[in-house]
Amino acid sequence: MSGGAAGSVLCAYAGFVEKWRVEVTETRIPLPGLAKPVRLTQLSDLHLGRAISLDHLHHVATLALATKPDLFCLTGDYVDYPDVGYDVAYRAVFRRLSQAAPTFATLGNHDGSHHHPRPGEIDHTVIRARLSAGGVHLLHNDAAQQVGLNLVGVGDLWSWEVDPERAFHNTASGLPTILMNHNPDAKDALLPYPWQLMLSGHTHGNQIRVPFLGRHPWAVVQDPRFIAGHYQWEGRQMYINRGIGGLSGIRLNSRPEVSVLRLEPVRLTSTPA
Fold first, then answer.
1. Burial level of 77, CB count in 10 A (0-12/13-18/19+)?
2. Exposed site from 16, 17, 259, 271, fewest CB < 10 Å?
3. Closest CA to 15 of 40, 52, 45
4. Is the CB of residue 260 less than 8 Å from the CB of residue 25?
5. What is each CA distance from 77 to 9, 165, 236, 258, in whole angstroms?
6. Burial 19-45 (b: 16+ CB within 10 A, else e)
7. Residue 51 CA to chain centroid, in angstroms?
8. Are 46 and 52 spatial neighbours (Cβ–Cβ below 8 Å)?
């Protein structure tokens, strides 16, 4: 095969094939203060629009439902651009999840306006309506309690809507806290607050990973140490989901992800007298 033909095949694979090769990952996460095990499934960056169709997202929902979680957490960017992806039928995707398990969500930078809006430009009325019609509980700088956990959701960093003071106001003492935050770069601003595990997306797992160019040449975060998977940071834990969609739906060596997090109590060992 010539170099040009090989390049064409690679481009076709990246543009049309890998986005369908959704990977279901499973990660064990010990969580201090947890009373009993919780099975949590996270989805992020669905990006309904030009490259990701409703049929595609129903396929993803089928994979997610097969994980049989106690809880679904959705971490933002449900649509691609404001002019596409607001299909009323989108609610059916969310409804499939919420009918199977309690489903909570936070918003991303694409859910109100494109890329880097200025304060006051945000309008996520439509995506709020789709989530609500689908039975999803939106935590926009708010908190709730579910399956022995505090669930805290903050607004998006690029949308100037991170408000932790408001978000943590309704937490219950004595419960471990899961923080849902679309962009992992907000972690530094959120460090002073009491959370044990942060769930994020936004990075798309770098979306295109070419080894000889370095691991994260197109990272959309300021801190490229945190791109995909499970991390320990400053005595906390983070899980960054690779998402489903992204720029033009292109994927190369960064398969879309449905992440299953097996949250387990930390067993304290007694010290001999």
1. buried
2. 271
3. 52
4. yes
5. 29, 23, 24, 15
6. beebeebeeebebeebeeebbbbbbbb
7. 18
8. yes
- What is the pTM assigned to this prediction? 0.91
Q: What is the pLDDT of residues 212-246, one digit of tens each?
A: 665 556 678 889 899 999 999 999 999 999 999 98
State both tokens at 134.
Answer: 């689908």
- Burial class, 47, CB count within 10 angstroms (exposed 0-12 / middle 13-18 / buried 19+): buried
| Best CATH choice for the domain 3-265 from the list 2.60.40, 1.10.1060, 3.60.21, 1.10.1660 | 3.60.21
Q: Render pLDDT for 157-208 as a digit per residue (tens, 0 to 9).
A: 998 999 999 999 999 999 999 999 999 999 999 999 999 999 999 999 988 7
Which residues, 6+ apart, have CB-to-CB distance to 181 below 8 Å? 75, 106, 153, 154, 157, 162, 187, 190, 198, 199, 200
For 39, the token pair is 């099975």
Can you tell me the distance from the alpha carbon of 240 to that of 199, in angstroms, rounded to the nearest whole number?
6
Provide the terminal-to-terminal Cα distance of the chain, rounded to the nearest Å: 71
